[in-house]
User: Which sequence fits this backbone?
C-alpha cells in the first residue's frame, strides 16, 4: 500500500514526471494560447474557442460553431505567426475542430466564471407617481387598468406583482 504524498512533494516542479506539475504547466500554456487568440481574433470570437490540447508542436482548438471555425480559418496564418513568435518557434500548425462536446465545456466554464445571481431588488415608486397611475387606471379598461393599478401598488407593497 502506498503512503500519501505531501502537498510540497506533489507540487514540486523539479521532477519531470510529476503529473501535477505537468498539468500546471500545460494549463498555463492553454491560458497563454487563449490570451493570444483573444489578441488576434478579439474576445468575442475567442470566448467561443476552447484550447483542447497542445502536443507535438500542434495546437488543437475546438468550437461549437462552423461560423467561428470559418472565421478562424481566415485569420489562421496571423494566429500561427503570433503563436510562433510568443509561444514556440517550432509550432507546426493549428487544428480547429467543430464539436458539440465543446458546448458542454463552454457552458461549464461560463457558469464557473459567471457571478452569482443578485437577488431581485424591491421596487418602489414615489407617491405622486402612484396617484398618477391610479388616475390613468380610472380612465382605462380591462387588462390595461389592472396593470396600472398593480403599478400604483408598488409604492405600498414594495414588490412587483407581475
Assistant:
Amino acid at each position: 500500500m502506498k503512503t500519501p504524498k505531501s502537498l510540497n512533494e506533489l507540487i514540486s516542479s523539479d521532477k519531470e514526471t510529476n503529473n501535477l506539475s505537468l498539468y500546471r504547466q500545460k494549463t498555463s500554456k492553454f491560458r497563454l494560447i487563449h490570451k493570444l487568440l483573444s489578441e488576434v481574433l478579439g474576445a468575442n470570437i475567442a470566448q467561443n474557442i476552447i484550447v483542447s490540447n497542445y502536443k507535438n508542436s500542434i495546437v488543437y482548438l475546438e468550437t461549437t460553431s462552423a461560423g467561428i471555425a470559418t472565421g478562424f480559418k481566415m485569420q489562421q496564418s496571423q494566429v500561427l505567426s503570433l503563436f510562433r513568435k510568443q509561444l514556440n518557434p517550432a509550432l507546426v500548425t493549428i487544428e480547429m475542430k467543430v464539436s458539440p462536446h465543446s458546448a458542454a465545456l463552454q457552458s461549464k466554464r461560463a457558469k464557473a466564471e459567471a457571478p452569482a445571481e443578485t437577488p431581485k431588488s424591491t421596487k418602489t415608486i414615489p407617491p405622486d407617481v402612484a396617484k398618477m397611475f391610479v388616475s390613468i387606471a380610472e380612465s382605462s379598461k380591462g387588462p390595461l387598468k389592472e396593470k396600472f393599478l398593480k403599478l400604483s401598488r408598488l409604492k405600498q407593497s414594495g414588490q412587483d406583482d407581475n
Notes: The two ends are 63 Å apart (CA to CA). The chain is about 55% helix and 10% strand. The longest strand covers residues 49-55.
